[in-house]
Amino acid sequence: xxxxxxxxxxxxxxxxxxxxxxxxxxxxxxxxxxxxxxxxxxxxxxxxxxxxxxxxxxxxxxxxxxxxxxxxxxxxxxxxxxxxxxxxxxxxxxxxxxxxxxxxxxx
Length: 107
Known about the structure:
Blueprint: H1 2-12, E1 26-28, H2 29-36, H3 42-58, E2 68-70, H4 90-94, H5 96-103
Antiparallel strand pairs: 1-2
Helix pairs in contact: 2-3
């Protein structure tokens, strides 16, 4: 099922990310990264996350990171600087080697 989802997402994403649903061209930053984490290959993950990086580098809005934005023009849709942007770290948490590495770090 995850493979089918990732393949569908790759085909339907816009220049700045994957629309959340068919009601509009907006998306949620954290949702995209969570969805990309379903990918079994690094290539699929990167293909879904690359438009997010493009959004972050291209958005004309000079505000703290927005998690709700338009996928066709990189403009903020609403929210900014919310705690849900922590969801961008889910890939790291999905990799036991990575979180174990950081868990064992000394302060």
